[in-house]
Amino acid sequence: MTATPIDGKAFAAKVRADVAKGVEALKASHGVTPGLAVVLVGEDPASQVYVRNKGKQTVECGMASFEHKRDTSITQDELLDLVKQLNEDPAVHGILCQLPLPSHIDESVVINAISPEKDVDGFHVSNVGLIATGQDAMVPCTPLGCLMMLREQHGSLSGLNAVVVGRSNIVGKPMAQLLLRDSCTVTIAHSRTKDIAAVCRGADILVAAVGRPEMIPGDWVKPGATVIDVGINRIDNPPGSDKPTRLVGDVDYTSAAEVAGAITPVPGGVGPMTIACLLANTLVSCCRTVGAAVPAGLTA
Ligand code: NDP
Q: Which secondary structure element, helix H or strand E, spans residue 65, and what is its range?
């Protein structure tokens, strides 16, 4: 079998188009423009590129983008003051604090200071609880993007066996909660899981969120399964090599694609969906604030 590649780039473009339509409708019906504030502390080059992309795509969708760059010398209290200002700003419907933060700042304190309604990353404990109890919440962007692709692929996910490899708070755990909400039978595997290969082989849906390059080979994949590879691993070549740095996932794409029914590539799979879902969350937050209907298909 040769798997169908799931084109995350094309899907993300569709989500952004739906968001742009929703923004237009909201401007016409309520005279409000959704706004996303991104807080970046420090000079990390990868974070700067990521934040620039977010800002560009936010504006392209017709939303307002506010960037707040701060030096690494900022204190936790100063950062909390900034978050408080953004919580109170009616032009801001989504607040994202780019992680990681410098080591003298407690990330969980900052995240939990963001108003849950504006927590477009979906990391606030209130949103974690709302998701776990099946209520309307801000859903973390990466798992939301994965869920959208899975629904598109399968229609109903009800009754399917899903295995999520990885149990982080930002990907693995919320992914498992969302799959459970969609009535999958969910197993979470992690570094202590016994015979992880056998666990993965039982999966109709296999989500890999580990951070280990090409850890999952094709013979861990059930024939016909849908494989969602969240991993982004940078492979640097030896000094002096003229080959560019490569990005690979947590799944060995070549061998897995021979067995799976559908699979996301890296790059071009889950990655583009993450920013698209951030924009979707900002629109959803604005809709909820003004009491407008949330456009279909943009949330869990
Ligand atoms: P974390 O490091 O927070 O979590 C990794 C998880 O993998 C842990 O639960 C860990 O288990 C588990 N794990 C580690 N080694 C093994 C192993 N040998 N066998 C089984 N499980 C193992 O990572 P994140 O969840 O933050 O990210 C995962 C990957 O996804 C990374 O490559 C990251 O770059 C990528 N990512 C991609 C995004 C995108 O937009 N596409 C967004 C966010 C992340 P344990 O808990 O037992 O230690």
A: strand 64-70
